[in-house]
Amino acid sequence: MSETVSARPAADRRRAGPAVHLAPSKKTRTPLGWWRNPWRRPYILATVTWAYLAWSLLPVLIAIGISFSAGRSNAVWQGFSTQWWWGHPKSDPSGALFVSPELHAALIQSLRLSFLTMFIAVPIGVAFAIGISRWRGPAPAGANFLMLFSFVIPEIIIGISMFLFFTYLLKFVHLGTGAQLLSLVTYQVSYPVIIVRARMLTVGREYEEAATDLGASPTQAVRRVLLPLLYPAILVSFVLVFADTIDDFITVRYLSGGASTEPLSVKIYDFSRGTLTPAINAAATFLLFSTLVIALLGVYLYRRITSGQRGQAQEMSDYLT
Amino acid sequence: MPDAPVSRPHRRVRVLPRRRPRDEASGAWYPRWYWPGFALPGTLWMLVLFLLPFYVVVSIAFGTVDPVFQSPLPVYEPWWWTSRYLREEWAFATGEFRAVELRTIVYVVLATAICLVIAYAVAYYVARFGGKRKGLFLALLIAPFFISYLMRMLSWVELLQPNGYVNTVLTFLHITPHPINWLAGVPFTVVMGLVYGYIPYMVLPLYGFLDRIDQSQLEAGRDLGASPFRTFIRVTLPLSKPAILASLVIVTLPMFGDYYTNNLLSGSPKTTMFGNLLDNSMEATGQGPEAAVLVLFLVVFLMIPMLYYLRQTAKAQRDQ
Hints:
The structure holds two protein chains of two kinds. Chain A has helices spanning about 10-20, 25-30, 30-35, 45-65, 85, 100-135, 140-150, 155-170, 175-190, 190-205, 205-215, 220-245, 250-255, 265-270, 280-305, 310-320. Chain A has two domains: about 1-35, no CATH class; about 95-320, Orthogonal Bundle (MetI-like fold). The longest helix of chain A has about 35 residues, at about 100-135. In chain A, helix 11 runs antiparallel to helix 12 (about 220-245). Chain A is mainly α. At the A-B interface, helix 1, helix 4, helix 6, helix 7 and helix 8 of A face helix 2, helix 4, helix 5, helix 6 and helix 9 of B.
């Protein structure tokens, strides 16, 4: 799709602006003339954009920095140390992320929930997307509607309805890891469906038809032809589901049923409202790093799968927009 | 669908003529349950774990009280539903909670409007003038998706503390004589938090759309003598109307259920929003019916934007 954006001529003309079209005359040198010059560069928009980017990312960088602070304050950086990560012999080590039993258990729970959710939600979602794209009739439209509905509904509604469901009807599912997992998958399964379905629509059914015409069985056509075409979309789904699950605290918080099954995200939320120490920054930074590791792994695999194909970066961003 | 090639092998079809699938284009024989089988696990999952829980919510909202234990008793048969809880909560909703509801709407509308202005400017600049830096811009715009919402809020909680960096800068520049307590129920902080939290979800869809606008249409506008501003008002803006509406819905829906931004950045009853009512109803035990009824109210309130968004998505998929 990058070919359709033929912005070059217009953009170039604008950049080379005054030199080509209006030789620097008196008219453009006065402030009002500068303002009225239709070919001047968009300074105001550029400022807004850079200011927005700084505003959206600098606070996070500061928060990461504070996780390496030597003081107890979470508002000001007080020298470098890793005491909030691994503890420090001179200070009380129980507050550090990897030392405190509470935070350490929460960390394990976070990773366990994210990986399990990822490996349950993505296969179900991918199969659903494949089935829904090929199955004809009114039934798939209804199923797809239900799936998309779970995507647009505010998450707190899913959390509350799941909580009431497990306390009033499905009483044998105890609040804890099981209930958390079931609701996380319910909330996340729509991501792979949307991403893979979009890819199915661009792929079309010609490749499968060619395969079956050449003698492949339906299952062979799906496994050897369709699935490889969907690998990029499946990979993006894995990364997005992981990133979204490890940060999730809204549904999970209602379904924890005790401090022992609360993941790191819920701990961060609870501590943020009470006693904040840089250990909470360390916890949040850890979540960010684990997401980054999965995302980089995804990019690496993506490159390997699509090596030699057109504009991968463009395509990857297409999934998100 | 392309026309079926003439010389396609039909042997399977001749053996089993009655079970031949309807789609003519495929050469292989597909069992009738082949494609539905793929969709089955997901469909069942959503029926049991999305639709059924919602039915439980409705049953509790229309349910009664257990005569012995005085605990809420869901009623699953629609013909025995009672409107007792509904009437109780409706009285709250039109009385005590009215201020909260109005405040929620004001905050959400304000935050969405600010989001739109900033997001449109950023998306427009990157789409049209990104040039060689487009990849970098895109990476920076996508980055917030991989940073947890909590971390982004946490960083503001820390910046806005009485001894935080924001107050340090403001007092250093003598903009305020004393540090301001931003986190003690200041509406400005909450609205800013909402904007900060949800704006990435608006920038990317807008960028995706503006990037696909055919530049020759804009050039036509300019060539015919319109000023850049006029071209924008008469060409770009009308073209991007569907994207604007869709991104407004994407951002507004979660804002109505948001309680955490508010709790983290203010926590004061002065800035309570509807999401906080929902969350508070879950904190107290035995409040099932209240939570259920509030969920029902919210779903009914958001039904039109949700259906609008679903219809747009379905339409976009059909057009592709």
